[in-house]
Amino acid sequence: MKRLAIALVLLLGACTTTPQPARTPLPASPPAGEPRELIGLTGPQLQAMLGRAAFSRRENGSELWRYDSPQCRAFFFLYAEGGTTRVRHVETVPRGRTMAADPGCLSVLRGKPASPVS
């Protein structure tokens, strides 16, 4: 009887499986490159250039500032450096052709007409 109970426990244990989480593929990463004139700006310099962000969030020594226009959105990622925060990465939606930030979108946010695309 004891052997039968052990065999049943082993048999039931073999039937259980751990469900595997669904794997969702990551989206393609944005093209490399940053708008040189914006990288390294401090938070106050960015705000002087573009005004107050439509949305901002602070988390673990970094900040995200989002600027909106009817044509696009721009996301600025600022990181603490030497007692201040500086822009280290910029992305726009829609993305640029040669980098993550579309120069036309950034021009619109600055209040300048966008350069024609050739």
From TrEMBL:
What's in the keyword line of the UniProt record?
A: Signal
Its signal peptide is 1-22
Q: Which PROSITE patterns match?
A: PROKAR_LIPOPROTEIN (PS51257)
According to UniProt, the name of this protein is Outer membrane protein assembly factor BamE
Q: Which organism is it from?
A: Rhizomicrobium electricum
